[in-house]
Write a structure and sequence with these properties.
35% of the residues lie in helices and 0% in strands. The relative contact order is 0.13. It contains six helices and no strands. The chain is mainly alpha-helical.
Length: 226
């Protein structure tokens, strides 16, 4: 049995890592769609605006940038299932096990949006989802959720769950990722965001936090204007 000497390293007069080696999030900038086609984007914008409809308390999913958030996520590692185990064998799993299939999130969206657009076209005399009344849009989304409408080669309830989950993420994620525009989601629930310190309020239950939320990028009203 061999032994190895273990020496402790004492750090002084500096940090034990090199600067610039972290991978901070890249801010999403306004611009054209990166993953979605124009028709796909129109469908997703209309859908997220029914999943999170606007009201007197704030904007809905579309104006909050949920579709932009989803678009940028699908164009990146998330869309490629980066960091997830995606090797066979694939088999039906329990509800607690999550998604158990070979298709990536990007592939699931591409197939799901096409199948949904085809269903709407057949069921509503050639119309697109965005052209439907809000009531008919709700009927389609409810049928998708409950499995009462059939999509070709796509599991409707699974696709609905994916879309709903991503819409919710876009509504409440930091605005640096393209959603939660103007921190609308955080304002709605009174979340302080990334403020460096709000310990004085941690145990003050049932009281509205009085300060506006702060993003990773800071606040636009903090910018010095000449």
């Amino acid at each position: 049995m061999s032994t190895h000497a273990v020496r402790a390293l004492t750090i002084s007069q500096g940090m034990p890592w090199a600067p610039g080696t972290a991978t901070p999030p890249v801010p999403v900038r306004p611009g054209p769609w990166v993953f979605f086609t124009a028709d796909e984007a129109a469908l997703v914008e209309a859908a997220v605006d029914r999943l999170i409809p606007p009201d007197e308390r704030g904007p809905g999913g579309k104006d909050a940038g949920c579709a932009v958030f989803i678009d940028r996520q699908l164009a990146g590692p998330y869309g490629r299932a980066g960091g997830l185990y995606m090797r066979p064998p694939f088999m039906p799993g329990a509800a607690t096990q999550g998604y158990q299939a070979p298709n990536t999130p990007a592939g699931r969206y591409r197939a799901g949006l096409k199948a949904l657009a085809d269903h709407v076209k057949d069921a509503f005399a050639g119309k697109s989802f965005r052209d439907l009344s809000p009531q008919d849009q709700d009927k389609v989304l409810t049928g998708l959720e409950k499995g009462s409408i059939s999509l070709k080669d796509v599991n409707g309830p699974e696709f609905f769950d994916l879309l709903l989950q991503n819409a919710q993420e876009g509504f409440f994620a930091d605005p640096i990722y393209g959603g939660n525009r103007d921190m609308a989601g955080w304002k709605l629930v009174g979340f302080p965001g990334t403020r460096y310190d709000y310990r004085d309020w941690v145990e003050r239950h049932n009281e509205r936090y009085p300060l506006p939320p702060v993003s990773i990028m800071g606040r636009s009203d903090w910018t010095i204007r000449e």
